[in-house]
Structures are given as C-alpha cells and as structure tokens.
Amino acid sequence: MNAVENKRRRFGEHLTSIRIFKKFILPEIKTDIYKYRWVDLFCGEGNLVLPILELVSADERINFFKKRIFLFDIQKELVEKAISNALQYGIPQKIARANIIHRDTLEDYPTFILNNDLPMYHITNPPYLYIGYIAKHKETQKHLEYFQELNEGYQDLYQLALINDLNNGIKKMIYIIPSNFLFGFSASNKIRDDFLPFYNIKKAFIFEKKIFEFTGTNVVICFFERKTVPKREKIVFEGTKINKENQKKFYTLDPKHHFRAGDEFGEFVKQYKASRPLKVTYYLTMEEVEKNEGDKEITVIDANAFNGKKYEKRVIYANDKLHDRIKSNILFIRTVDTGSYDGRAGLYLIGEIFGADGIFVSKSRYRTHPIQIFFDPPLSIDDQILLKDYFNSVLEYFREKTDSEFMTTYKYSNSEYTRKYLGLTQAKELIETFPILALKANESIKLKKLIENNEIEGIISFVKSFNRLMKSLIWS
Questions:
Q1: Which of 110, 16, 20 is nearest to 70 (CA)?
Q2: Is there a contact between 62 and 91 (Cβ–Cβ < 8 Å)?
Q3: Beta-carbon contacts of residue 432 (< 8 Å; ≥ 6 apart)
Q4: Eight-state DSSP code of residue 17
Q5: CA distances from 268 to 67, 174, 196, 214, 423 (A)
Q6: Integer Cα distance of 76 and 102 in angstroms
Q7: Contact (Cβ atoms closer than 8 angstroms) between residue 345 and residue 389
C-alpha cells in the first residue's frame, strides 16, 4: 500500500471533484449564495465550496470570501491545497489562511462560525470509515475515541459528522455520504432514528456508478433541511438514481422501519413470517469437522481456497452424524451477484454448481463466499428444492419492484445490471416466510403448483394470506 492510499484509508478520505459539485450541487444553491455563510468542515481541496466564487464578480470576491466562506480539514497538506486553490480565485494568501483552517472538526467543532448574522450552510463530503474497519487496523484505531460516550452506537465517521451538525443546530446541509445511510440495515438504523426526526430530505441524487477515483463506495448526495419542530413522521422526497441512465422516483422513509428507503422487502419478511418458520444456520466450519471426525468420506469445496477460476475440492472424513447433516442439506446461498443473470444472489444446489457434497470453511468465515445452509428441523430434499425456487422467485420479484434497493451495491462493473449483495439476515428472514411446516397436504400442493409455474403474484398472495391466517389463529 503506497503512502497516498494509506492516508485515504487512515482518514476515510475520498475527494470530490469540481465536476460533481457543478453538476449536482451548484444548480441547487446558485440563487442563494448571498444568503448564507458557506462552510465545509471536511473540505479536502475545497472543491465543494470554492467554486461558488465563480458566481461572484472579481471585485467582490475577496469580501465575499472573508465573510461567507470557511473551510476546515484535519490534514495539513489538504489545507495547503485548498489555500492554493483559493489563490487561483484571486483571494490573497493572508485572507485565505484566515478562513481555511487546519482542525479536527469531529473532535473540536468550530462553534465560532455560528456567531454571525449569516446562517451557516454546510456542504461536505465527510470521511467514511466503518467502525469495524477502524477496530481491526492499527493505523485507524485512534479513531475509536470518537465513538465514546454520546457517540456510542454509531457505526461510521460520517454519522458522527451528521450528529455534530444536529447538535449544533445547523439548518441546511448537503452531504455526500455512503448510500447505506438510506438503504442500510443495522449499520444505519441508529443514525437515521436519531437524525431524521430533526431533518427532512428535500431531494437526493443516488449514484449507482463510480464517482470517486479510488473507491467503489456507492454514495448519495442528500439535501437536508432542519424541521421547525422535531417529529417522528414519514419523510417523502424525490430521488434521482444515476446509473447508465437517470431515473427519478419518490421515496418514503417510515419511522416504523427505521426510516429505511426501499423497504417493501423488509415489510414483507417482517409482516408475513411463517407461524412455524424454518430455522437456519450457516457455514460448515473447521471446528465442527474436527469435533466430528470419523471414517465417512465427504467431498467438499474449500470456501477459503479460490484459485482465480474455481474453488478447490478436498475430502474430509466425518462421523455418521456430520456425514448425514452435510449430505442432507443440499443448498447454499450466493450472497453476491456475479454480474451474469444466471449468477444472481439466491439459493443454489451445491452438487449442481460445485459437484460436491458440502462447502467447507477452512479459515475465516466471509459473508461473500458461497455459504452452506443447514435446516432445523431437517427439510426433505424435495422441500429444499421447492424452497430454492420460492426464495429465488420472491427475491427477483422484490428486486424488480424496488430496483434492488433493499440490497447493498457490491461493486461497479460493466455488467448488464448493478451488482448487489444480499445480507445473511435478509436471506434468513425470507426463508422464514416459507410456510412449509404449517401446510396441509392440499395447501402444499397449491403452493407447489404456483412455485413450479413461477406465478409470482399468486405466490406472494398465497403466502400473505396463509401466514396472516395462521397468526390470527394463534393470537385468537
């Protein structure tokens, strides 16, 4: 890792180009440039504020800058670059240095900029660094100090930036942040629950293509405006999704679902969980194999041994109990789209795809590897195949209905579609809607026909009505 890349990872820094600012942000603020004091607390090279000066006549720029532009960054070299960029707009160095300041604004919020007759408008691309990454890497562990006391429970540096603005009463902000702020699950629930009762989202640009040079992190540009009175209520806004083409749609963020966007899938799996749900566990681990050694031969692929084209096969020896457990559970979950339509996230047959009996984890468990699924109570082979077809049909139904927004964008590529990641919790919740354990013979036949004919509307309708009925019988 070179020094530049190391700094990016250490500070969570992804610099924004002037092109992004001029195309998506400047048109929204250009008529208001004299109404606010323009601030970026994580300014980098200043590309999200300094170009405003192009709208100011040359003879007014110095006074405009002195009164209306304040920039901060934790890295001295970026502060110097921002100062150099200000000079290109005709700002004298002494004045530029007075308003472009080296400061750790996550730790030390510059409240002095609030003491002015002009309200502050914060435009920023804050650092993104997930707390799990921070904890695992020595060079970033000092950042754990940010997450103490009142900040405990937040999951990323950008979330702390949002909370700092909330706590300091900032009324208008434009943030370029990971789109998991809108679409993420557990990593984003707390920040949305704490932040969005105080702010509306006026509009958003949602990127499903790469906009930063050194990262594939999918981002959203959110235009925030503080509510007059804090309230946990639905937030409706227009978003523009930007991929191979631009698509506009309205999003509704419901506090009942932690203000999560695109949550039709979440509503389905939570409301229509089966009265007797299948219980699933994931992974065949080294520990389990070592505890159940025997003389029964089993062919597995090693999920930790991928040679660039395929997973390596190996033979393990197990006792009767583990042998039967592996052999009788024939499904695995592919959590990540491959980029081809026959390799989408979903449930697949281990034997058909890999020519093996099981999927073995010889080292660390990774969510993006193929993962064997185990059922309790045991599920017959026929019912597992039926579950596979059910799972994949319903998953594709919600992918089409929501443009896959309930899933996480995995990597940008030249594929025909944007590659997505399906969380293991999401997979488990979808499996739990499959009502196979509660079906009577005639009901089982009906559902099986619907699944075999891929009558997706009929499948959804059947599961909703059956699971709702079974729950009402339990409650009564």
A1: 110
A2: yes
A3: 269, 273, 274, 277, 278
A4: P
A5: 52, 32, 23, 37, 16
A6: 6
A7: no
Q: 387 CB contacts (<8 Å, ≥6 apart)?
A: 278, 331, 347, 379, 431, 434, 436
Strands 120-124 and 293-306, by their bridges, are unpaired
Domain segments of the chain as ranges: 3-262, 279-475
Cis geometry, peptide bond prior to residue 377 (ω within 30 degrees of 0): yes
Instruction: Look at the block and give the residue holding tokens 């996230």.
Output: 345
Binning the chain into helix, strand and coil, the percentages to the nearest 5 are 45, 25, 35
* Distances, alpha carbon 139 to alpha carbons 125, 144, 261, in Å: 22, 11, 34
Question: Which one-letter DSSP state was computed for residue 476?
Answer: -
- State the Cα–Cα distance between residues 129 and 157, nearest whole angstrom: 5
How crowded is the C-beta side of 182, counted as CA atoms within 13 Å?
A: 32
CATH 3.40.50.150 assigned to 3-262: yes
**N residues, the chain:** 476
Q: Please list the pLDDT of the chain residue by residue as tens digits (476 residues).
A: 444 444 444 544 556 689 999 999 999 999 999 999 999 999 999 999 999 999 999 999 999 999 999 999 999 999 999 999 999 999 999 999 999 999 999 999 999 999 888 999 999 999 988 888 788 878 888 888 889 999 999 999 999 999 999 999 999 999 999 988 998 877 899 999 999 999 999 999 998 776 654 455 689 999 999 999 999 999 999 999 988 778 898 999 999 889 998 778 988 999 999 999 999 999 999 999 999 999 999 999 999 999 888 999 999 999 999 999 999 999 999 999 998 888 999 999 999 999 999 999 999 999 999 999 999 889 999 999 999 999 999 999 999 988 888 888 776 556 677 888 999 999 999 999 999 999 999 999 999 999 999 999 999 999 999 999 998 877 65
Strand partners for 2: none
Helices and strands counted in the chain (H then E)? 18, 19
Kindly list the distances between the CA atom of residue 124 and the CA atoms of 8, 229, 326, in Å, as whole numbers in the listed order: 16, 25, 51
Give the integer Cα–Cα distance in Å for 27 and 92: 27
Q: Which two tokens mark 194?
A: 């704490």
CA 420/CA 389 separation, integer angstroms: 20
Judging by DSSP bridges, how do beta strands 371-376 and 331-334 pair with one another?
antiparallel
State how far Cα 179 lies from the chain centre: 6
Beta strands 311-318; 408-409: pairing state: unpaired
Contacts of 350 (CB under 8 A, 6+ apart): 330, 331, 332, 356, 357, 358, 359, 372
User: ∠396-414-124 over CA atoms, to 5°?
Assistant: 90
